[in-house]
Amino acid sequence: MDAAAASRWVELAAARLKRERDHLTQLDAAIGDADHGVNMDRGFDAVLGRLPAVEDQTPGALLTEVGRTIVTVVGGASGPLYGSAFIALGQALDAEAEVGPELLLDGLRAGLAAIQRRGAAVEGDKTIVDAYAPALAAFEAKVVAGGSLQTATEAAAAAAADGVRATVPLRARKGRASYLGPRSVGHQDPGATSTALIFAALAEVFAEDAGGTGQAPG
Fold first, then answer.
1. Contact 113, 122 (CB under 8 A)
2. Which H or E element spans position 153?
């Protein structure tokens, strides 16, 4: 993954979040503040407006700037969580001009760790982590087996989508939704949903590079 691919990831994520803005907001209306879709769409629109020129950039520097923009623009709890994840991811990639599977795995691990430091959530709490953690595990399994970025990101996107569906029967233990207690059961978590969209966009980048359909799970 070079800077152009990292930039493409952000563009595709922004497009998916825009298409699903109303759906994300509806999900959040059931168990949150009804602003998740609007906030994520606004934040990624701002990211697109501030994306540095790809020339002379590294993937790490570009994604770090993406995170800083998200922290500044996205409201609610989402801004610090997603922003911290992208900052940690970008910093983990260091100054490498080309990022392979192992280094991207390190970056994705750093992103999840940043989310968990801020939100103190684990799998089963009905949060972003319920999509991110299984995505990371699936990505790692493919990398350990010698898989390519295409196969690893496809596996991550599929696992994230499965993680989203698994949030429906959960009772929320973190965030605004936790205030609802048992009434949070039966609703899909909006943060996990947007996380799966971002992983699907990452898989789409490498599907395009491989001459595939350009589509990924989610």
1. no
2. helix 149-166
Query: Amino acid letter at 203?
Result: A
Q: 3-class DSSP state for residue 114? A: helix
Give the tens place of pLDDT for each residue, 125-177. 999 999 999 999 999 999 999 999 999 999 999 999 999 999 999 999 988 89
Question: What fold, for 3-209?
Answer: 1.25.40
Please give the full DSSP string across 60-90, using - where no structure is assigned: HHHHHHHHHHHHHH--TTHHHHHHHHHHHHH
Is the whole-model pTM more than 0.85? yes
- Longest Cα–Cα distance of the chain, Å, equals 51
Q: Which helix (H) or strand (E) holds 198?
A: helix 190-209
Cα dist. 107→37, 115, 125, 152, 213 in Å?
Answer: 25, 13, 23, 14, 26
Side chain identity, residue 196: A
Are 132 and 116 contacting, i.e. CB atoms less than 8 angstroms apart? no
Tokens standing for residue 110: 């750093």
pLDDT digits (tens, 9 = 90+) for 12-49: 999 999 999 999 999 999 998 899 999 999 999 999 99
